[in-house]
Write a structure and sequence with these properties.
The chain is of the alpha/beta class and 466 residues long. The protein has eleven helices and 25 strands. Strand 21 and strand 22 form a beta hairpin. The two termini are 41 Å apart.
Length: 466
């Protein structure tokens, strides 16, 4: 049974909202039924837009869309109105659910007293592929119209795989420390719905006292985070506090966490009897691709691990690009509503764009990006390698962008530029006319805590190396 057709006992807790209200699986089923009756009645497959929050109401709308077989776009409910309108103009959804009830969009009218559900005045006649279930953004809060097309099979397979390697069961109590609209955050919800767990739904930031009050009150059993989240927890000493007394599992994905932080978290987890999973994934693979078993992490610091159940990973023999194959690989991309009719364009094979190596035991390590290269004076340079070297030599946060013959190095803290010059000129042999070193405080970040390279390049007035 797919996770969206929850067949768990009706009196079992499905979720708890941040205000403390408890929803059983029976409650959720009842609300889904009412919600589906509010959707447009039509003979062909429809398209919805869900401006969601980490709330029971958003969860119900999401599950109702999946059950009704309408494809649905998931966006952050806090997305700027102008960016939401950009998506609406590109895709013309038949209905829009806004968790805040504040959306005012041309061509749409509210059909509920709380103004959360909006219907389009004129029904769009178009073809939407029967396999299309979800459309997710890969660009955080930028409102990019380029979306990942995911099938019902993609999301079901990935939820089952995650539940298997994390050994999830109905006694789990995960807390939503990431947005539901973000692939990693959504995968937490999907995999725990599959096993009949109770999800603690909150939009509070992990930096807020209310988050931890909610966490402790309802005894969260697991915590998930991106690199920035864990760096903050370590800096604030929260991983050693009594707030996490109920925790059994920590998971990390959403980007590369510095090995020294992995070692520190692993040490704390070992002392407190927690499982700490370091994982790797992409939205294009419905969130997860590989993981490092906690019991092997100490000897595999820096590795992204081995493939999740049902998947395989190989390296392109000529470029070293990591290639993933599995049932969770997307159908393809969409850039406007005409792409909604397309079927599977990838056949379960994803070229990740990451350059990797494999050790003798079959564990993989990311060493760079295929597209993060510039060619300076005829020689190719990997910007990720340069960043890693500069971070090591300067102890500063560093981001590199640029185009051929124009490398820009941004430092987050003003400091002596001599170590940067020593690396770029002494190690990489670059003449000082080939690069500039600037201080950008702070470096721009995406919603998941990664460096926002497009925003950085735009602020510096350069063309991003793509």
């Amino acid at each position: 049974m797919s996770f969206w057709y929850n067949d768990h006992p009706g009196d079992r807790i499905a979720c708890i909202g941040s205000e403390g209200r408890v929803w059983t699986y029976g409650d959720v089923r009842s609300r889904i039924g009412s919600w589906k009756r509010s959707l447009p009645q039509r003979s062909c497959k429809g398209l919805g837009l869900l401006l969601c929050q980490n709330s029971p109401e958003s969860l119900v709308a999401y599950l109702a869309a999946l059950q009704s077989q309408d494809a649905v776009i998931l966006l952050d409910g806090n997305l700027a109105q102008s960016l939401a309108e950009r998506i609406v103009q590109k895709y013309a959804p038949d209905w829009i659910f806004s968790a805040t009830g504040n959306s005012r969009l041309p061509l749409y009218h509210p059909v509920s007293a709380d103004r959360c559900l909006l219907l389009r005045d004129r029904v769009c006649e178009r073809l939407i592929h029967s396999d299309l279930a979800l459309l997710l953004s890969t660009s955080g809060s930028t409102g990019s119209p380029k979306l990942v097309r995911l099938s019902y099979g993609n999301v079901a397979a990935n939820a089952a795989s995650i539940a298997e390697y994390l050994s999830l069961n109905h006694e789990e109590r995960p807390i939503t420390s990431l947005p539901m609209s973000y692939a990693y955050g959504l995968s937490v919800i999907n995999s725990h719905l599959l096993t009949g767990a109770a999800i603690l739904l909150t939009d509070k930031s992990v930096a807020e006292r209310d988050f931890w009050t909610f966490f402790c009150q309802h005894r969260a059993s697991s915590f998930v985070g991106v690199p920035y989240t864990y760096q903050m927890l370590l800096r604030m000493g929260l991983l050693k506090s009594d707030n996490l007394a109920s925790v059994r599992t920590l998971t990390q994905a959403g980007g590369r966490l510095d090995p020294r932080y992995i070692e520190e978290i692993h040490s704390i987890a070992s002392q407190r009897g927690w499982r700490f999973f370091v994982m790797y994934g992409q939205t294009e693979a419905t969130a997860r691709i590989s993981y490092v078993p906690p019991e092997l992490l100490a000897s595999r610091i820096g590795s992204i691990g081995k493939p999740i159940p049902g998947g395989t990973m190989t390296l392109d023999p000529s470029s070293g690009e990591l290639i993933y194959r599995g049932p969770n690989v997307m159908l393809g991309y969409a850039e406007d509503e005409s792409d909604l009719a397309k079927g599977d364009q990838l056949g379960g094979e994803l070229h990740t764009g990451d350059v990797a190596r494999r050790d003798q035991d079959g564990f993989f390590y990311i060493v760079g990006r295929m597209k993060r290269f510039v060619k300076i004076f005829g020689q190719r340079f990997n910007l990720d390698d340069i960043e890693a070297m500069l971070r090591q030599r300067t102890g500063n946060s560093v981001a590199c962008v640029g185009s051929d013959d124009n490398l820009l190095v941004a430092l987050e803290r003003a400091s002596d530029k001599t170590p940067v010059v020593e690396v770029l000129s002494g190690i990489y042999g670059l003449h000082q006319t080939a690069y500039r070193v600037l201080c950008i405080e702070p470096l721009p970040q995406t919603i998941t805590g990664k460096i926002d390279y497009p925003a950085l390049a735009e602020s510096l007035g350069t063309r991003l190396a793509l």
